Amino acid sequence: MDALDRQILVTLADNARQPLSRVAEELGIAQTTLHQRVRRLEEHGVIAGARLVIDWEQVGLPVVAVVSIGVEEPGPLADAAAKFAAIPYVQNCFSITGEFDLMLVVRARSSDHLGEVLEMVRSAVHGRSRTVIALSTFFEGRVPPLPADEG
Predict the structure, then answer these.
(1) Which of 27, 46, 82, 93 is packed most tightly, with the most Cβ within 10 A?
(2) Which pLDDT tens digit goes with each residue over 94-147?
(3) What is the CA 149 to chain-centroid distance, rounded?
(4) Which candidate, 53, 81, 57, 49, places its Cα nearest to that of 67?
(5) CA–CA separation, 145 vs 29, rounded Å?
(6) How far apart are the first and last CA of the chain?
(7) What is the spatial distance between Cα 66 and Cα 131, in angstroms, rounded to a whole number?
(8) pTM summary value
């Protein structure tokens, strides 16, 4: 992956729905070059798909919480993660360091609904949890600067 591939990724990450002709023009390259590079990035798994950016307020899921889970049952963390994946309001699950083992991001319709979702989370595995509720979202889903090739 070279500097042009990184530029393509950053440009598409900002708006994956923009016409590739506009991306090619913005980057100063031929459309065929862009198409070939995008296809190659897809074939190598660098581009794994395109996603919508959803306004969670407008779709009725304005409450977001981060739940830290300390798993207290035997077995790999992947087993616990699979149980959380079965809960539709769990948006993300990360293995973490520190006092807890997993971190979940959950969405809910209201504080009452969040309570119901947290009951599902607590029932999924034996362990302890700590929940933090977000008051505001200033930004999310940013793409950080991509590292340059070393060497």
Answers:
(1) 93
(2) 999 999 999 999 999 999 999 999 999 999 999 999 999 999 999 988 888 888
(3) 24
(4) 81
(5) 21
(6) 13
(7) 6
(8) 0.81
Domains located in the chain, CATH noted = 3-43 (1.10.10.10), 63-133 (3.30.70.920)
Give the type of residue at 43.
E
The pLDDT value given to residue 114: 98
Tell me if 127 sits within 8 A of 68, measured CB to CB. no
Look at the alpha carbons of 102, 106, 111, 112 in this order and tell me if their dihedral is positive or negative.
negative
Crossing angle for the helix pair 31-43 and 20-27, to the nearest 10 degrees: 110
Beta strands in the chain (DSSP E): 63-71, 90-95, 102-108, 127-133
Cα separation, 61 vs 59, in Å, equals 6
**Cα-only R_g, the chain:** 20
**C-beta neighbour count of 86 within 10 angstroms:** 9
Sheet of 102-108, strands arranged across: 90-95, 102-108, 63-71, 127-133
Cβ neighbours for 61, distance < 8 A, ≥ 6 positions apart: 89, 107, 108, 109
* Dihedral sign (CA 117, 118, 119, 121): positive
